[in-house]
Every structure is written in structure tokens, then in C-alpha cells.
Amino acid sequence: MKKQSKGSKKNGIVEPRINDEIRGNYDVRVIYGDPNDGGFNKVVSLYEAKKEAERLNLDIVEVNAKSLPPIMRIVNYSKYLYELKKNLKNKAKHNSETKEIQLTVNISEHDIAVKANKAREFIEDGDKVKVVLKMRGRELSRREVSKKSLYVFVDALSDCAVVENLPKDEGNKCIVYLKKKK
After folding, report:
1. 98-180 carries CATH number 3.30.2350.10
2. Closest CA to 25 of 85, 70, 64
3. Residue range 9-92, CATH number
4. Is the pTM of this model over 0.85?
């Protein structure tokens, strides 16, 4: 059985209290394994829960202290932490957002640099960037010439980003998606 400091934060996970860090004389809901396979889910005193965890040679982990009664789980603590980290990593993979940067045809070089720096921050945070070039009037009749500012913008990010798809025309807009370079 291991001893950890209360509420310590490691790798983005607030580690729960375990074993002797949990003190008091109150009832808790204890969960162990799957109730269909010999596990249990019952309300007992904290003392009994600790004794059961000792008997099974496992740790008692505080899952939710705010509920009534508090919820404890009898598990191997290192495996429990591993699962928490794995779930956090998977959640982070699927939580990437798509940020949008808008450009116009007659944008200045300085404005392109400022927007490229902001896009670089988004990309380094793991987000995708949707670059939208808006065209009006005569700019629509000369699309290839009008896309120059879009190409300059994409070239400014070539060190950290890769183009996910070819520029796509949608009405008066041209759209490109950028993602982090591997």
C-alpha cells in the first residue's frame, strides 16, 4: 500500500487521497470490482472499508468525497492512476478544436505576421486552424491572384504546420485547414 500527499497534482491529474490519508469515523460507499463477478457495492464504516482493502492487499481510494456517503474504491492504486492518465490522454486527443483565422485579399504584411503568430500558438496547443480568405467584388473574378495573401500566410507557418487539404473555394471564400507538423 502506498502513501501519497493529499491532492497532489501530477501530469495534469489531481491524485486522490488513499489509505491512511482518509480519516474519520463515518460511513462510506465502497466499490470493488464488478458486482456480477463477486465484487460489491455497499455502504460500510470507513474502518471496515480499510480492513477489507487490507484483507484484499489493495488500496482504498477516495473517488468522490463530496457525495453522501463519500465514494471509495478498492483497487491497486498504481493501476488506477495509470487508467486515469490513459483516459486523460485519450480525452486530450479528441478535444482538439478548430480555430479560425480570417484574411482579406489586401491585408498588409504586418497583419499577416500578427495573424500567423496567433495561428502558430493555436497549432502548438494542438488545435487545427481554419484559414478563411474573404473576397469581394473584382477580387472574385481574379481568384488565383487574390489568393496570394493566403499563400503567404501558409508559407509563414510552414515551419510548424502542414496543409491538411488543398485550398477550397466556397462562394466568396477560400478555405484551407492547417494542422501540426509531425
Report:
1. no
2. 70
3. 3.10.20.80
4. no
